[in-house]
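name: query_chain
kind: protein
chains: 1
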Amino acid sequence: MSCPTSGLAISQAAALGALHGPAELLPISSSGHITVVPWLLGWGYAELDDELRKSFEVALHAGTAAALLITLHAEVGDALHGLDRRRLSLIALSLIPPAIVGCTLQRPIEQRLGTPATTAAGLLAGAAAMAWADRAPQARRREQAGARDAIWLGIAQALALVPGVSRNGATLAAARLRGFAREDANRLSRDVALPVIAAATLLKGIRYHGRGLPPGTAAPFAVGTGAAFVSTLGSTWLIRQVERDRSLLPYAIYRAAIAALVVARLARSGASRTIIG
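structure:
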């Protein structure tokens, strides 16, 4: 069932919302999946107006962020309770790089780096970083994080603005490369990522809210947001799974496989155009 005025099918909105939750929790790039999966499947979503798709992705992030606040409320409460000058400085420093890049380069990134080809490049680059980080020593604890660690985590979050890189994957790779143990790297990743997710969702929501939604999009937006909320609630066990896993390599291999599918599809399309031409 589709909305004739918008071209955004409710069934596709629901499927993308269901995909968004687990893709956000795992280091595999939710933005990358929301870009390449509809394109690989030939869905009409891939042909929608760029602004409409960006608005819809903000709605998906809102659903996921709301679910994370509920499921991680104990962890968030502990973090707030234990907030001291050191941890505040850590979070503040980690916010600087993504804030600068987001304010100055967000538009060019959205306009030029949201294609299947560039998303595949982001997936591959993130996969390579994760595979490299997996070989790093893991001796440091979360409490040992300092200013340099915060800056590197911030740089990772800035790089994750490129579709396909993955905020979770980039910050995990950065923390592991800085020598943090797996569980501590995961906690650090969430410590710095949650404020950025909340702030980015709020700012983008304000940006797109002023334009209003095209007629016929309210239903698919609501369905997609609800599906993202539910899928995130149902997938939070994946957070502990990533912490328990002995390696990031399986996620890196998966990302490389998705990128290979995109490259193969692009190659076939290019060959077809050459033959027809």
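note: The first helix runs from residue 10 to 25.
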